Amino acid sequence: MHYLYILYSDSSQKFYIGETNNIEDRISKHINHYYSNSFTKIANDWKIVLTFECIDKEEAVYLEKFIKRMKSKIFNNKVINDPSILKDILSKRKS
Fold first, then answer.
1. By the 8 A CB rule, do 20 and 2 touch?
2. Which of 58, 66, 77, 94 sits between 20 and 30 A of 5, alpha carbons compared?
């Protein structure tokens, strides 16, 4: 099982989009700045605003890249408020 996740920092007003197979460990590493060159080192107030369960890594990576390509805070907020958008994206991909 794999997960797509979105973190948000109020202080930087930025989103971070990622994927993992171990959500608790991955979020903990971001919050504790385990990844020294990671984008998440810019803030200390990251909070999880979305976790979305995916069938496999390929699906999670596809969604991660799709959201990042949008480069839109408005789109990020739409997905957070209505995660079913992600199911629609996946269904169109498989068609």
1. yes
2. 94
